[in-house]
Amino acid sequence: MAPKVTAIDERLLQLKARFAERSAIQLRELSAKLTDWQYGHCTREDLQTLYELLHRLAGSSGTFGFHQLGQEAGQLEQVIKAQISDSPPLSDLHLAPEIQARLAQLSRLLVTEPSSSAEAATTDLPDTASEQTQLLVLDSSLNELAEALNNFGFKVVVCEELPLHCAHCWRSTSIIIAPAAKLTQVVNWNQQQAQSHHASPSPILCIGSDDSFAARYALAEQGADGLFLQPVKVPQLAKRIEQIKSQQQQPYASKVLLLDDDQELAEHYRLVLTQAGKNVKVMAEPTELLAVLAEFRPDIVLLDVHMPPYSGVTLARMIRLEPDWLSLPVIYLSSEQDRDLQISALAQGADEFITKPISDEQLILTVRALCHRARQLAKLVSSDGLTGLLNHSHIKRALGHEYARVQRYGHNTSLAMLDLDHFKGVNDTHGHGVGDLVIKALAQLLQQRLRTTDHLGRYGGEEFVVILPECSLAQAKHMFEEICYHFSQLSFMGNNGTFHVTVSVGLALLNDFVSEEHALNAADAALYQQKQAGRNGVTCYLPHAPASDSPE
């Protein structure tokens, strides 16, 4: 059976036809101009135009399946390059007939060369928003643990016995949690289900009490993905679950900004990367670069070195003039083969050099790796060390960005400020180590129960800030009332047994204020009102509320 042709496949074929048609017309026009070369009438500008066309063909032909065309165009490109730099220029008039013949050969290859790799590769899985994580707990003795994980926002299914015949239960499971004593049986069942569904086995986290080297070695040998000793510290378990989930799938599509003056090639790359789950924005006019960077905020930038009348090298340096983009990965995607020129270009502010032509599969794998690395580096720079949320400076930067978007598009965006109630008493009574555990628990709960599009940050101490784009105050209030309830149900182990902590929330709508700072002050005022009203709840900003020092 022939493979199904998708809309993107059809669009790629249309781009290939358009590339061939446009290239054939340009080759004929330039070949005609070379007739004047024999009489000394060909200008340096004519040769420069020919050189730029050959440079484009050398870099893009392979992408559309014309591999021989790309190789021969690259060879002829070097001949023309030598003529442009010759002194006196255009001295080898006898080369004109030979070059015309080679241009004619390029035109024939556009028609006759078979296409072998113009289709998009689909080996990469899309980066999609994550669904609610389902946990399969394989022992009723872990009911209390299951209830605690449910408060963190995980969907938990508890089975009294191993569901040997329950295929549906395995298919919908993200992670298995089981007693360490049952690991052998669980591993066998997990592998059987994976084989029958042609999938990878689900990760297994073990709950046990034996902390010896022999016990840990045995669990590792059987394939366990984690061991948590009883009594289980639920926030640590929740953090491990989040780590596994993030490894299984990206929370949202990687963002790629592509600058290339070859319209067909740029559109081809866009379609291929979009089909692979990337969010791609194409630019052909570099004069809008800084505005697009501020609005789109890409994970990486791909740009060609040669984009007459602009230089990709200069554009890379221009990007680095702005402090916000000093760490933004800039990758050259060019047909330039001269290694010295590549190194020189990299020294001007870029991070890597990818040589055209590049296959669709190589492009996908390379971009995925670069985006993943960029995300990891950005997270290291922007994260709070204790919680993994955005740190103070980066949550404020995110607030400024979202305020600018509100001003531009007018959609509702809510802002929340959270504060743990009576937190000083927690530290004084149970110690700062337990206090840190409470802070991490709230961070984990927020990550699990809020949307992937929301910005979460630790503002300082026991204070948190959350920005919710395209979310009304009513919607935000409902979300945080749920969070307050579930957090109050979490149990923490202290010096005198278990205890509970609550959280207060103040909300404000970014749209209502002349600056993000005014909105932040309003959310803080609403938080104070909630503290005065009894804590453990949510208050929306009310105009003319009295200001005062915030209570604990």
TrEMBL record:
It is an enzyme of class 2 (transferase). GO terms for biological process: cell adhesion involved in single-species biofilm formation; negative regulation of bacterial-type flagellum-dependent cell motility; phosphorelay signal transduction system. CDD domains: GGDEF, HPT, REC. It catalyses: 2 GTP = 3',3'-c-di-GMP + 2 diphosphate. The modification 4-aspartylphosphate is found at residue 304. InterPro entries: CheY-like_superfamily, Diguanylate_Cyclase, GGDEF_dom, HPT_dom_sf, Nucleotide_cyclase, Rev_trsase/Diguanyl_cyclase, Sig_transdc_His_kin_Hpt_dom, Sig_transdc_resp-reg_receiver. GO terms for cellular component: plasma membrane. Residues 411-543 form the GGDEF domain. This is diguanylate cyclase. GO terms for molecular function: diguanylate cyclase activity; protein kinase activity. The modification Phosphohistidine is found at residue 55. Residues 8-113 form the HPt domain. Its cofactor is Mg(2+). Gene3D superfamilies: 3.30.70.270, 3.40.50.2300, HPT domain. SUPFAM superfamilies: CheY-like, Histidine-containing phosphotransfer domain, HPT domain, Nucleotide cyclase. Residues 255-371 form the Response regulatory domain. Keywords: Phosphoprotein, Two-component regulatory system. It comes from the Bacteria. Its EC number is 2.7.7.65. NCBIfam families: GGDEF (TIGR00254).
